[in-house]
Every structure is written in structure tokens, then in C-alpha cells.
Design goal:
By secondary structure, the protein is an alpha+beta fold. The protein has three helices and four strands; from the N terminus they run αααββββ. The chain folds into two domains: about 30 residues; about 80 residues, Beta-lactamase Inhibitory Protein, Chain:B, domain 1, CATH 3.30.1450.
Length: about 120
């Protein structure tokens, strides 16, 4: 009888522990959506109306440039930001992709990033 109660309590504790861990994982994933370093650089640049000339001077030449349908350009910066070794000894790189959208006056209008 006691062993059944102990097993039942252990199962309950395990389920509660797993739900706490799942909640912590969700909080961690939701916090990873922003990069404070990029936000600190890009938000002021957008509010100041920085131009393509400024970004090319400060960030270097972008990895790619495309034109926008209604005018302006889209610049993409792609950088390797680290990585890890795989089981077979290969290197699996982590890439950061920053996309900047400029209007017809060559001023930054919006940005997004992933993997940073």
C-alpha cells in the first residue's frame, strides 16, 4: 500500500517538474526573439533617419542588395556568428541575417533580423 502511494506521488512530482521545465523553456524561447545589441544599434539609426551611406561606412558593404517594388532598396547583411562541432567533427555555423529596408530617399525605414 505504501509503495503504491510513493509511486503515485513520484509520478505526480515528475509531471509537475516537467510542466515547470516546459514553462521555463517557453519563457526562454520568447526572450530570445530580440537581440539587445542590434536593437540598440538599429532603433536609434532608424529614428535618426540614417542613410545607406552611413550603414555602408559603419557596417561595411552588405552581402546583397535588392530593389523594392515601390522604390528604395533592401540590404541584407549575413554573418557567421559562431557555431558548434557536430558528432562527425564537422563545423555547423550559426548565421545572423540582418535585413534593412530603405526608402527612395535612401533612409532606413524598417529592419528585421534572425539568428543573431
Amino acid at each position: 500500500m505504501i509503495s503504491k502511494m510513493v509511486m503515485s506521488n513520484m509520478k505526480k512530482v515528475r509531471i509537475e517538474g516537467m510542466s515547470v521545465m516546459a514553462t521555463m523553456l517557453l519563457v526562454l524561447v520568447s526572450c530570445m526573439g530580440t537581440n539587445p545589441f542590434l536593437e540598440t544599434a538599429l532603433d536609434p539609426a532608424k529614428s535618426r533617419g540614417e542613410t545607406q551611406v552611413w550603414f555602408e561606412k559603419e557596417w561595411g558593404v552588405p552581402s546583397s542588395k535588392d530593389s523594392r517594388w515601390l522604390g528604395g532598396e533592401v540590404w541584407t547583411y549575413t554573418r557567421i556568428t559562431g557555431g558548434q562541432k557536430t558528432l562527425l567533427g564537422n563545423f555547423d555555423p550559426l548565421t545572423c541575417k540582418v535585413t534593412l529596408k530603405f526608402d527612395t530617399e535612401k533612409k532606413l525605414t524598417s529592419y528585421k533580423y534572425s539568428g543573431c
